[in-house]
Structures are given as structure tokens and as C-alpha cells.
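Database export, one record per block. Field names are fixed; values are copied verbatim from the stored entry.
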Amino acid sequence: MLLRLNLEDVVTHFKKNRLIKFHLPDNKLASLKEVSFLEDSKCTIESFDSLFFDFGQTLSKAILTNKLLKRIPAFTALGFWLRKSNLEELVKESSILENRKYLFPKGLVLHICPANVDTMFVYSLMISLLCGNKNLLRISRRIDSPLISELILLLNNILASDQYRVLKEYIHIVSYDRDHDITDYFSSIADVRIIWGGDNTISVFKKFTTKPRVKDLYFADRNSMSIIKPKSFFELDEKGKEVFIKNFYNDVYTFDQLGCSCPQSLFILGSIEDADKFLIEFEVYLRAHVEKMYDNDIFSIANLKLNKIALDCLDQKIDKVYNPTNYVNFVQLKASSLLDSCGAGYLYYKQINDLTELNKFINKKVQSISYLGLSQDEIRNILLSNMGEGIDRIVPVGKALNFHYLWDGFNLFNELTSSKYY
């Protein structure tokens, strides 16, 4: 007998039974109809409870002693950031505990985590966890790497201990294929949504069902730059130059230069003669360090950079390529606005005589400026000259990727807690 299926019934069955991969707190597959427990957003631990700081310290130690993870700069940086002393310093700096009596968790926070910065989900989780919230994090299948698997294994082992078992209700990490029904459901139960995916992802998430009082924190596409005074570089001794090169490398090459805080443009503040002299010396130091430290597929990346150079030339966005290699590319910026790099050490550069020349390159897309040699007055003048535009942070070279409770103009501790009066 021929069985005739109703197409609508088939689609309904598929929607109800499509699977979500739970990485945390238990490694399992679940269908959409099996995750209603996530709707319980009642929190039982106060904001900034000592348990959250202890959890950060335990995870920090696990990362920094792990044979696989401790060799990777991005994971080492995460491990140091998670130290209890650092988390306590961030909270102290924010002064948020001055009114602790009136601070309470928001509830359930949905984190849509980026694929280009694979450790970002832990930073996002920890800030929200400190605030006492329950958390549902969607990580991309594209970051399903041995390193992330190892990190999730560490997290599961920690949550299995008696001390942190209560946090199993606070941390759920999932991944699933692009599925609007699942995401719509998760959006509908969230009290806060943190969207790290950039402009396209933001436009999609604005269409989903949400609670009337949901708080959305959108992190759009951003661009960052670095400003260097050649004279400040020349004044460094050999050891100082090596430290500076290491710091610059970490800012640029971590996450293959695709993080929003990674500098994509370099402005050289000084005379043409000093700028030329600086580029020659700087390129030699940087290339030597990159050749020693960078272990990605350099040949595929070289092809990507060559294509990018050709496109930028055809579009008349650059007018000079300085000593291109597979590891470092300095391309002279001709356009009057910042451009998006293809990553992996493809740096736009421009010599400027005065900081006011920066103004035409500053817009609301600019997130971070890292620097060498700027005074506090010069930093303040940059901000004063661009009020109402971009620039959320100006930090020394080497700190471009340091995650902070102030990010993209948001005070995350304030955004992720609820102030109640009684």
C-alpha cells in the first residue's frame, strides 16, 4: 500500500525533532521540544558572589596548565584574564559594588558568539556570570576545533565537581545549524541578548520574537587602527624593540587579524623621512617574529593577500605596496577612510604629520586605537576631535585585545544587572 504523507505534517515533525548539540553542561543532543527547562530564568545566587570569582580562577588554572591550550597565545591570554585577581580588579575599577544592595541578576542571557574570535564566548560568559545571570551561549560549528573541544572538556570537568555543580543551571553552551525556529525560540525566552555576530547577524536578530522588556546588546562590525611615533620606536633599546614587536604581533596576528580590536591600519606620526626609516626597520623585526611564531597555512594566505592587493589597486584604494612577503604586507592607504583588511598581516599604512589628519578616517565603525608614543593630552585631543563618532578605547600597543567590562561603548556590568529599589 502506498503511504501518502501530508507535507505540512512532515515539516511540523521535522521542526519539532531537529537536534541541538549541547556541549555544556552535558555532552548530548536534544530536540527543540526537550529544552523547555531553559525557560526557568530564576537565579539563586547573588550578583558578584565569590563563587563566580572562584570559578574563574579554577578555569584559569586549568587553561594555563593544559598541555594543549597553554601553547596558544589566545588561550594563554584568556587564562590570565580569568584569574580571580584580574576579575576582582575589573569589578573594583567599575565601582559597581558601591550600590551592591540594589544589584540583582537580569535572568537568562542569550549569547550569539562570533566564529572569528573563537575564545570570545568565554569572555562573554564570564562577564554575565559575574553579574549572576543564567546563560545560553550559541557557538558556531565553524569553531568546532580540537582546541575548543579541549576547553569545553575542561569546563565540563569543573562543573562536575561538588563546588561548582550548582553552576550547571547557569551555563548552557549549544551549537546547531542555522535554524530560525530554534533561534526564534531562544530569543523569545531571553531577558538579555548579546549579539556578537556583526551587521548582518544583527539585522537578522532584530526580526525574532522577544520579550517586551528584553535588553539587546548589539556588537556591530568594527574596525581598529594603530598609531606609532617613529621617534618613540627609535628610542627603544634592543630588548624594548623585541617586546614592542611581540606586543604588536599579538595585537595583529591573534585571530588572524579578524577580531574587531585587531589593528587593520597603521598610521605613522612623523616626517616622511622618519616614516620611511621606521618602515624599513619595523618590517625586518616584524617579519622575523612572524616567521618564527605564525603557523597557519601561509601559502593559502599569500594567495588571499595577492588577490586583495590586486582588488585594492583596481579600486584605487592604495597606491604603494611596501616590500610584500608572505608574512607581512604594508600597503599605502590612498582612500580617505579606513578599509577592511583581508587579515593575517595585511596592514594599510599612512604617514601623517599631525593627529588632526586622522579625523577624516574616524567614523562610527572605529572601535580601538592602539599606540606607541602618544601623550595623555594627545589621546584626549583625538577623542575631543571626534566626539559623536567612533573610538571606544585607546590603549598601548599590546593591549588591543584585552577584554574589559567597558566594550564597544557599553558598560557590561551595568547592562547585565538589574537595579532594584527598596
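Remark 1: DSSP finds 14 helices and 18 strands in the chain.
Remark 2: The longest strand covers residues 263-269.
End of record.
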